UniProtKB/TrEMBL annotation:
Residues 18-117 form the Cyclic nucleotide-binding domain. Pfam families: cNMP_binding. CDD domains: CAP_ED. This is Crp/Fnr family transcriptional regulator. InterPro entries: cNMP-bd_dom, cNMP-bd_dom_sf, RmlC-like_jellyroll. It comes from Niabella pedocola. PROSITE patterns: CNMP_BINDING_3 (PS50042). It comes from the Bacteria.
Amino acid sequence: MTTAMQFLLENIRKHVTLTADDEQKLVAACQMRTVKRKQFFLQEGDVQRYLVFVVEGCLRSYSVDENGFEHILQFAPPGWWIGDMRSMLEQSPASLNIDAVDDSAVILISIPELERLYKEIPTFDRFFRILSERSIATHQHRLIDSLSLTAKERYTSFCRQYPSLITCLPQKYVASYIGITPEFLSKMLKEPIKK
């Protein structure tokens, strides 16, 4: 079994226990793919046909408003899942773009394979219920933060959520994620810390 598949199984084992037979079925349903830096995995208007698990690199999901400004919803470093959930669930045109921040390696599970795995491996279905619940809670918390926290507090929250990305992401991506301009972020980071 490849290192990438071992990494996926370790991620799943943090939440549920799969039998050896279940693990074999899961591995057989997976595909490996590389996504080059700035290459799209999904573009707005396309239909998301795969669930995506990041093994190496980093992906991001974002929308672009009518003025051309990007609004980043999520970063997916190694060990994270990413997707346009509405597009995936309804097999409808995506409202998000997903591209690679860095050269990345991902594991894909097609939607038909995913549905088959849910039926054949009830524990796998439970795993995704756990992930979905945590994702909803995280997105609710982020919405509350965006409505009630200052830019500096949102930056601090970003640093807690994505500690491995703080030093490697372009500032414009961080600014987009926390909802401010890159210029304001740069100015804010240069301000001395108040004691």
